[in-house]
């Protein structure tokens, strides 16, 4: 098999979605791809570099698309990106330690606030990003805990409880984003 960064990223996302970030190891990835672990290091110097590449793939539509005029919608879009993948918020938290990536994400949020809150847009964007990551990590952790308490994830009772949990987090998330936006404008 001819390895490429895209093939490795796609296989990593499959592992992430199936097993979570902690089990997305270079050894497991190599086994899934049918290569020696050392072959992966030609493309990514370590797991952190792979995490950064996955995060950039996740964030590409958000960062390269048109600037969202509405702050709340931009925050909801970021949350949706994280919720699409098991441990998506944890993965982005790890990747956003890379300064240029974090600044790019915050910059998009600043763009949404620049007109309504020019003096506080930067700190509001940073606060929103911290809130986004923390709230979504908590939501995904509670989802996994709930799923683990049922024999199967497709149990109708599990699905109903997940929907209820999702609705609660959605309401709290929207209220938190609203609070940050109003605080920035005040």
UniProtKB/TrEMBL annotation:
> Which SUPFAM superfamilies does this one have?
Homeodomain-like, Tetracyclin repressor-like, C-terminal domain
Q: Which residues form the signal peptide?
A: none
* DNA-binding region(s), chain positions: 25-44
Task: Tell me the domain of life.
Answer: Bacteria
InterPro entries the record matches = DNA-bd_HTH_TetR-type_CS (IPR023772), Homeodomain-like_sf (IPR009057), HTH-type_TetR-like_transc_reg (IPR050109), HTH_TetR (IPR001647), Tet_transcr_reg_TetR (IPR003012), Tet_transcr_reg_TetR-rel_C_sf (IPR036271)
Q: Where is the HTH tetR-type domain?
A: 2-62
Alphabetically sorted, this entry's keywords are: DNA-binding, Transcription, Transcription regulation
Question: Is the keyword Chaperone assigned to this protein?
Answer: no
Any one Gene Ontology BP term:
response to antibiotic
Would I find Transferase among this entry's keywords?
no
Q: Which GO terms describe its molecular function?
A: DNA-binding transcription factor activity; transcription cis-regulatory region binding
Database matches in Gene3D superfamilies? Homeodomain-like, Tetracycline Repressor, domain 2
- Cross-referenced PANTHER family: HTH-TYPE TRANSCRIPTIONAL REGULATOR RUTR, TRANSCRIPTIONAL REGULATORY PROTEIN
| Protein name as it appears in the record | TetR family transcriptional regulator
């Amino acid at each position: 098999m001819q390895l490429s960064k895209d093939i490795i990223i796609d296989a990593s996302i499959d592992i992430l979605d199936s097993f979570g970030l902690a089990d997305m190891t270079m050894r497991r990835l190599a086994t899934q791809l049918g290569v020696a672990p050392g072959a992966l290091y030609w493309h990514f110097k370590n797991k952190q570099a792979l995490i950064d590449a996955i995060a950039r793939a996740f964030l590409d539509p958000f960062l390269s698309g048109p600037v969202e005029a509405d702050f709340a919608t931009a925050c909801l879009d970021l949350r949706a990106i994280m919720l699409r993948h098991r441990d998506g918020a944890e993965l982005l938290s790890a990747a956003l330690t890379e300064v240029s990536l974090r600044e790019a994400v915050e910059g998009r949020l600043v763009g949404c606030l620049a007109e309504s809150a020019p003096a506080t847009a930067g700190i509001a964007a940073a606060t929103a990003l911290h809130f986004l990551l923390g709230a979504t990590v908590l939501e995904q952790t509670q989802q996994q805990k709930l799923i683990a308490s049922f024999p199967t994830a497709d149990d109708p009772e599990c699905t109903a409880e997940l929907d209820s949990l999702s609705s609660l987090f959605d309401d709290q998330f929207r209220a938190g984003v609203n609070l940050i936006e109003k605080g920035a404008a005040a």
